[in-house]
Amino acid sequence: MGKINSVKKLTDNKFVNLYGVDATSVHDTPVSYFVASRAKCVEDLKLSTGENHPDGVIIYSVYGEKRDKVVLIRQYRYTIGGYIYEFPAGLVEPGEDFHEGAVREMFEETGLKLEPIKVAEAFEKPYFTTIGMTDESCATVYGYASGEVSKAAQEDSEEIEIVIADRDEVRRILKEERVAIMCAYMLMHFLEDEEVFGFLGEI
């Protein structure tokens, strides 16, 4: 196993920072690595704590009387200089349970009310997003959305369109649009499962 010799914080930003890692590989060669993290300091990095508390939450919810539509957002992202389809999502605030964070973020981004459903821990626990670049992890909350779509609670820094998509539109999105990978995998379930959230009963 590799060995981490030292870690240095390289930036001082509000939401994400870059850390430099000096390490030695399992083959006894020097390694210079960079980690983007939501952590505020070296001591809070997951490589320091060994813990995995969710930085954010992703919301997979269905909408409508027949629960046959999925709630998506189409958001402008500076990382790609364009729009991408995602699930509503956001950061978990300090001391906030991620289920509560999901309800809050759903309302802020879409104006909709989220009713989370109870699922096995294996389906909702935090998983790492892009481990080659960041220690960020996100939990997933599943549920039913209701109410009227609204942008009133969105932040001025956000550029988000709310999309309520049926299966035909989901097929088009997957074929033609940019889609975040975590969202894409769940949309594949949405297309193929006769019972929405049916896969959640497998563990």
From TrEMBL:
Cofactor(s) needed: Mg(2+)
Give, as one word, the top-level EC class. hydrolase
Keyword set includes Heme? no
Every copy of the Nudix hydrolase domain together lies at 50-187
Query: Tell me, which GO biological process terms does this entry list?
Result: nucleoside phosphate metabolic process; ribose phosphate metabolic process
Q: Which CDD domains match?
A: NUDIX_ADPRase_Nudt5_UGPPase_Nudt14
Concerning its family, UniProt says: Belongs to the Nudix hydrolase family.
Pfam families linked to this entry = NUDIX
PANTHER family recorded for this chain? NUDIX HYDROLASE DOMAIN-CONTAINING PROTEIN, UDP/ADP-SUGAR PYROPHOSPHATASE
Q: Which UniProt keywords apply?
A: Hydrolase
Q: What is its EC number?
A: 3.6.1.13
Q: Which Gene3D superfamilies match?
A: Nucleoside Triphosphate Pyrophosphohydrolase
Q: Which SUPFAM superfamilies match?
A: Nudix
Q: What is this protein called?
A: ADP-ribose pyrophosphatase
Q: Which GO terms describe its molecular function?
A: ADP-ribose diphosphatase activity
